[in-house]
Amino acid sequence: MSEPLRIVLGVRAPRRDHAVAFEADAFVVEGVALLPDRRVALRDVYGIERSGGRLWIGAGCVPVVLGGADAPPERLARIEAELRARIGALPDGPGRLARLDARRPLWPHRPWLTAALVLGLGVAAGSTGLRAATDLLLLLAFGLVAEAALGAARLALCGAAALLAARICAAGGATLALAPLALALGWAGLLAFVRLRHEPTLGVRTRSALGGSLWLAPLLVVHALAAGVPARALAAAALAGVLVAPPLLRRWPGSLPPH
């Protein structure tokens, strides 16, 4: 069995040091402000990703994020090397390492389309009520994640299909009032397809962002139904996002940054 090991990332007296303690079959993250120590089993690690001065370790619904201004890069590299070595020493270690290496980070796109749509629809609606604000916040939440991962062109085509499908099924509903929710639902369908179909290759940050946004999907549906949007229009918008996903993602993700 592997020997216990503790690597200190930052000394924060009088508070506890920020450190990672390795056990035989797990590691413990210590000294994170406002959070209790977190123990993660080695078998639960699905991804490891370096980004700038931080090390992202995928585990569970919320990834472990190590590093910061006071964390020496060589210690982050040591933690990554130790983590990979201990995962590789598991009975199915080589297969686990191969799956870790299959995940690649994406070049993030600037979410200019989402920002423009939220601003434009907000101005066009001319309403500052709670419903309108919630519509736009949900659109913003799904759009930021989807556009960063997929780009503006794919989002625009998916949104157009979702809006058209919802408009046809809304039986004369106001297009402007329907637009934010239809777009958000279409993008949610697209993200669900990406999350299910491309999960083995998603980097830790992308997988976590997609998973977090999809937790909002039930809230989006409940809000839309409470706002009086017909259920068939909601289903049509989400289904349109799923159906256009295969052709839109045929050449996705394209070129990737190096490991």
Distance between the termini: 29 Å
Please identify the oligomeric state: single chain
Number of distinct beta strands = 7
Order of helices and strands: EEEEEEEHHHHHHHHH
Strand content: 5-15%
List segments where confidence is low: pLDDT < 50 over at least 5 consecutive residues.
none
Structural class: alpha+beta
What kind of sheet is the major sheet? 4 strands, antiparallel
Integer tally of domains: 2
Share of helical residues: 40-55%
The radius of gyration computed from the alpha-carbon positions, rounded to a whole number of angstroms, is: 21 Å
Overall residue-averaged pLDDT value = 90
General description of the model:
By secondary structure, the chain is of the alpha+beta class. The protein folds into two domains: 5-102, Pleckstrin-homology domain (PH domain)/Phosphotyrosine-binding domain (PTB) (PH-domain like); 112-248, no CATH class. Helices cover 54% and strands 14% of the residues. The chain has helices at 73-88, 93-102, 112-125, 130-150, 152-169, 175-197, 204-214, 217-226, 231-248; strands at residues 5-10, 18-22, 26-30, 38-41, 45-51, 54-59, 64-67. Helix 4 (130-150) packs parallel to helix 6 (175-197). The longest helix is centred in the last third of the chain and has 23 residues, at 175-197. The radius of gyration is 21 Å and the shape is elongated. The two termini are 29 Å apart. The mean pLDDT is 90.
